[in-house]
Amino acid sequence: MSRSSHGLSALPSQTIAPLERLGLRLRAHRVQREWTIAEMAERLLCSPNTLRALESGKPGTSIGLLAHALWLFGEIDSIDGVAPAPTGLAAKRRVRRSAAQQGTAGVIAENERDF
User: Fold this and answer.
1) Full-prediction pTM beyond 0.70?
2) For residue 30, which of 47, 63, 54 has the smallest C-alpha distance?
């Protein structure tokens, strides 16, 4: 029986071509560096078959593996351009307070009693 999930088989056809193009670009980077599939797979700490799946644009390939490949090629910053946050959302972002600002665990500070 195949290990693919039902979710992956139901992907819209519009998602397949961009994944395949991404895989081809990754392959071009590997070929430019004259790395074999075995060498690249060793650098990525994955099997050659998993690398082939990544280069083929298979949707079930790990996003972590993709990020690792981009890092190896010096292209990790390009991942920041994927699905940028809407500008309105970024302005309303919550900021987490540091541990020093939080005080004692389980105790409500005076500045938090605004209800």
Assistant:
1) no
2) 54
